[in-house]
Amino acid sequence: MAYSDKVVDHYNNPRNVGTLDKSSEEVGTGLVGAPECGDVMRLQIRVNPETQVIEEAKFKTFGCGSAIASSSLATEWVKGKTVSEALEIKNTDIVKELALPPVKIHCSVLAEDAIRAAIGDWKKKNGVAETEAVAAH
Amino acid sequence: MNCTSCQKPMQGSLLVCAACGAVQGDGAAAIDYFQALGVERKFGLNAGDLEREFHRLSRRLHPDRFVRATAEEQQNSLRATALLNDAWRTLRDPVERVEYLLKIEGHAVGEEHAGKGKSAERQPPPDLLEEVFELNMQLEELRMSQKMGETAEASVVADLTAAATRFEAMLQTVDERLAVEGAKWDSGESRAQAASRMIELLDRRRYVRNLVRDVRETLKTAA
Ligand code: FES
Ligand SMILES: [Zn+2]
User: Fold this and answer.
1) Is A62 on the interface with B (CB under 8 A)?
2) Which residues have C-beta within 8 Å of that of residue B30, sequence separation ≥ 6?
3) pTM
4) Fewer CB within a 10 Å sphere, N or C end of chain B?
5) Which domains does chain A have, with CATH numbers?
6) CA B37: distance to chain centroid?
7) Given ligand 1 and candidates A7, A39, A91, which is best to mutate, with the most ligand atoms within 8 Å of its CB?
8) Interface pTM (ipTM) of the complex?
9) Nearest C-alpha to atom 1 of ligand 1 is from which residue?
10) Which of A31, A38, A103 comes nearest B210 by C-beta?
11) Rounded CA Rg of chain A
């Protein structure tokens, strides 16, 4: 399958690969899988408790090139955003940016799921109510 | 459906008329794999019967038998043979058969249900996910040290081998449960419930299958 230039770029130079301290209060961890293919992805964020801005994001993906590119892009996009802004990122935005073909849509869904799961984990740790985050999906 | 040549009702495989031997034309494109092999649309098929039927039909449809036939008949035989081969490759494998049957019964399977439903509902049990992720981390480390020409630590190899064995057993359990749900579906009772259980099992199976595959592959080069 032909990957777009952007996918190839993220694949060859993935941004923000790595691990954040899972036990930190400021860190939210999202571990998700794509049932369509069995690939797995972990995305972590570190949130500034005062401003609710995501200051750091890391990922580790065991999956296809599109999943790696999607999660790499997702970490770039969430950085600098507040938690509620980050929740507005949709998998369709990722599809557009990376020009993913229909069979690779689920790879972008995986990245969106990972963002939501990471934010959900952070909210739970910090006692922030899960409100629109759940309803909007 | 009637034979396009002798007009008698078709019996068995819809690819070739049992009465007059005519390979069916264009219309055959719309038939499913079960109809191609002339077997009932169900999960529990007898492997031996299926294979016998496939070989019998293969001989019957073989293009070599049509070298002196009309161009149309040759065309039909080529098309029917291709379809028969696809049908056989899919139905002979119990897991692929499940996916295929669910699909033609109108269920969204695998790729088709991408992004549908709440993400939480699509997720496997968290323990399984954690374990798969952790084992992938170990695998990556092992591959890395292999690349650097280091010999893998015996304990890591032992851990991964044990994990592969455990996951293979898991795979077997999933397959057994698929067979049980398939039999329920075949019997005609609570089909919807059996189908959704099978879809869930298939979803989980992919993680387990990948892991077994990747561990076995990596360990082969470590040995
Ligand atoms: S193929 Fe499944 S995540 Fe890309
Ligand atoms: Zn006939």
Assistant:
1) yes
2) none
3) 0.86
4) C
5) 5-124 (3.90.1010.10)
6) 15
7) A39
8) 0.89
9) A64
10) A38
11) 14
